[in-house]
């Protein structure tokens, strides 16, 4: 195990992989941290490429110079109110709301739910990561009316012909009362809907509803143990898991359904825990039974009342985007705005070159170049982030404990204090603070031999330059950085 931890300690995200995960950063920009954690593709992408032990860095954001504590990671995310009083409902932003039920909940009767089998199972990883990144794709926040239309269609909330059929913010048979709900629509570069997602959270309970036109939403996790049940003539796959998902020392009860509606909308609904308790469940846990009932209620609603995505099928506006690949450093250096921050020539001994530009309006403006040394596992990669579209963990050179790798033993997960884990993984230094000594502090030996360096430089104009260099000496890395500090 120690050997494994040591190996994983040395794995890091390249800028290429970072570019392919930009859509996750955009999603984190739109949604709170906990909801963003339910993005299944984040987990599978991390596992497929061997992401390091510290995980993905946070939300892209611009931080004014001098406005933050130097030893704290710079991550900007929307504030979510802790007080769930009526006055604060939906106060987080214009796109989340706390679901209110009918005015007289005592008149509701619990509906008959279909029988769906949810066997406990363990997931395995699929190697199919083809849709982890889609060039030009973007997200649009859903308004409350958008989410309501998904369930009620263009006609809107039905009038209650009987007091027991009175509706709240959403169909009461979902039993989402009290959940804070929000959603997003994911579009491809041509503005065509790829997937709509709705998140909900209530205390320790949460759910994710993913909807895709024409097919079940893509997932990189395959599950051979799922069971198919017939619900109103529609095959519904179900499975469940019990484990400590959030690391709080308590088991979480996770239940998932997957099916396609009659009008061709693919559905995957996953809920974690539930306010419901199943009074009767043969040879099982009542809490898990409650999670299964909560899941089944969504299936029932979707197959009896329908789901609708026509109002989201095409984006109203498409943000400008551009993707370019480069066959040489000379081509990359022709890109205005990036030239000054790129090396003037390839590192000695490194031959194979690749480069990529990724631009999307209000989201990213990034160019990276990489060289590989034949017959080795050594790469030198430089990524330039313009316009403030990158996160970074800024450190103070006078606090070496926040960045100096020489102070800690590998595996870092055992030796680095929690408050410094992000900065020790990949710190950012102001350009005026950079020095050969800092470069020396950012290296350790690789398992495959030689040294590896990883750090970022924040320039006065807000440009962030990331360096990930294998097989070079500290002097060679400094030679890459120093010309850009003028």
How would you describe the overall organization of this protein?
The chain is of the alpha+beta class and 486 residues long. It has 2 domains: 2-76 and 319-485, no CATH class; 86-312, no CATH class. Helix content is 19%, strand content 25%. The protein contains 12 helices and 19 strands. It has helices spanning 2-9, 15-20, 22-30, 33-36, 40-49, 144-152, 286-305, 329-332, 412-415, 421-425, 436-441, 474-481, and strands spanning 97-98, 124-125, 138-142, 180-187, 193-202, 205-213, 221-222, 227-231, 234-243, 252-260, 265-272, 321-326, 352-360, 364-372, 379-385, 428-430, 443-445, 451-458, 464-470. The strands form 3 sheets. Strands 1, 3, 4, 5, 6, 8, 9, 10 and 11 form a 9-stranded antiparallel sheet that branches. Strands 12, 13, 14, 15, 16, 17, 18 and 19 form an 8-stranded mixed sheet that branches. Strand 5 (193-202) and strand 6 form a beta hairpin. The longest helix has 20 residues, at 286-305. The chain is elongated.
Give a quick rundown of the structure:
By secondary structure, the protein is of the alpha+beta class. It has helices at residues 2-9, 15-20, 22-30, 33-36, 40-49, 144-152, 286-305, 329-332, 412-415, 421-425, 436-441, 474-481, and strands spanning 97-98, 124-125, 138-142, 180-187, 193-202, 205-213, 221-222, 227-231, 234-243, 252-260, 265-272, 321-326, 352-360, 364-372, 379-385, 428-430, 443-445, 451-458, 464-470.
């Amino acid at each position: 195990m120690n050997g494994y931890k040591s190996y994983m300690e040395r794995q890091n995200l390249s800028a290429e992989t970072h570019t392919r995960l930009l859509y996750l950063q955009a999603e984190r920009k739109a949604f709170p941290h906990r909801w963003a954690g339910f993005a299944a593709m984040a987990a599978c992408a991390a596992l497929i490429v061997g992401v390091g032990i510290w995980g993905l860095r946070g939300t892209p954001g611009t931080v004014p110079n001098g406005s933050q504590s130097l030893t704290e990671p710079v991550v900007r995310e929307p504030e979510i109110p802790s007080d769930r009083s009526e006055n604060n409902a939906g106060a987080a932003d214009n796109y989340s709301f706390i679901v209110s039920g009918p005015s007289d909940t005592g008149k509701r009767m619990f509906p008959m739910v279909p029988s769906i089998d949810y066997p406990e199972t363990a997931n395995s990883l699929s190697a199919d990561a083809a849709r982890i990144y889609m060039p030009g794709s973007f997200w649009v926040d859903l308004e409350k009316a958008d989410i309501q239309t998904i369930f009620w269609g263009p006609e809107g909330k039905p009038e209650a012909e009987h007091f027991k059929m009175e509706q709240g913010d959403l169909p009461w048979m979902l039993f989402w009362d009290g959940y804070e709900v929000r959603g997003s629509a994911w579009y491809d570069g041509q503005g065509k809907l790829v997937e709509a997602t709705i998140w909900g959270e209530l205390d320790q309970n949460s759910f994710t509803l993913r909807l895709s036109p024409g097919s079940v939403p893509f997932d990189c996790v395959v599950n051979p143990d799922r069971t198919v049940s017939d619900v109103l003539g529609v095959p519904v796959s179900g499975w469940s898991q019990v484990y400590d998902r959030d690391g709080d020392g308590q088991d979480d009860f996770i239940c998932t359904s997957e099916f396609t509606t009659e009008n061709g909308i693919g559905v995957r609904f996953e809920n974690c825990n539930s306010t419901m308790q199943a009074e009767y469940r043969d040879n099982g846990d009542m809490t898990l039974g409650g999670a299964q009932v909560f899941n089944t209620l969504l299936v029932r609603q979707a197959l009896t009342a329908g789901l609708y995505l026509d109002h989201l099928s095409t984006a109203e506006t498409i943000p400008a985007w551009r993707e370019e690949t480069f066959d040489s450093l000379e081509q990359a250096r022709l890109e205005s705005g990036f030239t000054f921050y790129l090396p003037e020539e390839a590192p000695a001994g490194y031959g194979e070159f690749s480069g990529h530009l990724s631009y999307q309006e209000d989201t990213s403006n990034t160019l990276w170049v990489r060289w590989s040394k034949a017959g080795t596992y050594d790469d030198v990669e430089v990524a330039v982030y313009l316009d403030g579209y990158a996160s970074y963990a800024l450190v103070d050179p006078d606090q070496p404990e926040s960045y100096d790798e020489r102070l800690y033993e590998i595996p870092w997960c055992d030796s680095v204090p929690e408050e410094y884990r992000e900065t020790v993984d990949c710190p950012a230094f102001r350009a005026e603070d950079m020095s050969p000594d800092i470069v020396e502090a950012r290296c350790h030996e690789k398992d495959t031999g030689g040294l590896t360096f990883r750090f970022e430089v924040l320039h006065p104009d807000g440009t962030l330059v990331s360096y990930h260099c294998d097989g070079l000496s500290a002097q060679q890395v400094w030679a890459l950085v120093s010309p850009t500090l003028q």
